[in-house]
Automatic annotation (TrEMBL):
This is Amino acid/amide ABC transporter membrane protein 2, HAAT family. The chain crosses the membrane at residues 12-35, 42-69, 89-109, 116-137, 181-200, 227-247, 267-292, 304-327, 333-354. The keyword Transmembrane helix applies. Its main location: membrane. One of its GO terms (molecular function) is branched-chain amino acid transmembrane transporter activity. It comes from Roseibium suaedae. It is found in: Cell membrane. Pfam families: BPD_transp_2.
Length: 377
């Protein structure tokens, strides 16, 4: 039997999660993932997946268009840099606001339908957004070249706007690159996790679960589910917009490729892989996919020969030949196999696996306890 959520348990989960995120450079270093660029991706895409899970995990509405909000947040952040200065706080706030407004417009139309029709509508909106950014709105987005901050930009409140240093976002004189950039993203991930946790435990979260379980029954009782689903859609879009802004805060460049359908599909995989409807699952799924993308994709035959060098030559060569199919350019094959196995054997994702292990240990400890307290005959 799973543990019932209580304020104490939630506080303990939050504290452990915050400590784990802030210490990632230490405990991820042994597996080669302790460098800043990858840590930033862990935090940013963890935030993206957390927001997506508020919609998909709680209401069951599967959006294939969340990359549109990621792109809107990115473009808004870069334009804020260009007009106001390189401070990341206004860029993040403006990105959240712009993506929220955009989500209201898309959600108002898309949520008139449910199921596969909703998914297709969101996909259509995302592809329209991508095409607009790529070719139609080039004065705003700079098309396929991408939008970047230039020295000729106004940057009205940037005291060092005309300096000779690199054009990177700066907070209190600290450049948001490397480990400082990671910790900025990490703090926002922790805040985003806390908000998601509060939503999960709130009456609003209960209403969203009711939408997922039986929307028709809600209609029969006189409750209109659309305001709740629209609110969840907008909140989820704002999370995505903030993630897009963080991508530009750590690297001030926005491109239309962030709006492609593949980016929307990626966050779906992250959520399902980790465990939809759970708090930690989407973050674990995001971390796993980004680890595969950045670590496994870097393996080559030379690396594999180093790893399997302890084998005899007649074994080393075929082992390297077979393994090379699953790493390097073939890393997606490994991810696909892993995803297939999890969907077949753990439909609830990685978190279901943890739950099963926990139940197994509880049963084992319970059996030992009952054996020890049994009366002697």
């Amino acid at each position: 039997m799973s543990a019932t959520p209580t304020p104490t348990r939630d506080l303990l989960m939050f504290v452990v999660f915050a400590a784990a995120v802030l210490t990632m450079p230490m405990w991820l270093a042994p597996i080669g993932a302790g460098y800043p660029d990858l840590l930033q991706k862990f935090a940013i895409y963890g935030l993206f997946a957390t927001g997506f899970n508020l919609l998909f995990g709680l209401t069951g509405y599967l959006s294939f268009g969340h990359a549109a909000f990621l792109g809107v947040g990115s473009y808004t952040a870069v334009w804020t840099f260009k007009l106001l200065g390189m401070n990341p706080i206004p860029a993040a706030i403006m990105a959240i606001a712009a993506s929220g407004i955009f989500a209201v417009a898309i959600g108002f139309v898309s949520l008139r339908r449910s199921g596969i029709y909703f998914s297709i509508l969101t996909l259509a909106f995302a592809q329209m957004s991508y095409n607009l950014a790529y070719s139609v709105l080039t004065p705003i987005t700079n098309g396929e070249t991408g939008l970047r901050v230039l020295r000729s930009d106004p940057r009205l409140f940037d005291a060092a706007g005309q300096g000779d240093g690199p054009l990177v976002s700066t907070l209190f004189g600290i450049e948001m690159s490397g480990y400082p950039g990671f910790y900025f993203c990490a703090v926002l991930l922790i805040i985003g996790f806390f908000i998601a946790q509060r939503i999960f435990r709130s009456p609003f979260g209960t209403m969203l679960r009711a939408v997922k379980s039986n929307q028709n029954r809600m209609n029969y009782t006189g409750l209109n589910p659309r305001p709740y689903t629209l609110a969840a859609f907008v909140i989820s879009g704002m999370y995505a917009g903030l993630a897009g802004a963080l991508l530009c805060i750590t690297d001030p460049l926005a491109g239309a490729e962030r709006m492609q359908w593949t980016a929307s599909g990626e966050v779906v995989l992250m959520t399902i892989l980790g465990g939809m409807g759970t708090l930690l699952g989407p973050i674990l799924g995001a971390g796993l996919i980004k680890y595969f993308e950045n670590i496994f994709s870097a393996f080559n035959e030379q690396t594999l020969h180093r790893i399997f060098g302890f084998l005899p030559d007649f074994l080393e060569t075929p082992v390297v030949a077979i393994t090379s199919l699953f790493v390097g350019e073939g890393w997606q094959l490994t991810l696909g196999v892993l995803f297939m196995l999890i969907v077949i054997f753990l439909p609830g994702g990685i978190m279901e696996g943890f739950s099963r292990i926990g139940r197994m240990f509880r049963r084992s400890s319970g059996a030992k306890g009952s054996h020890q307290t049994a009366p002697a005959e």
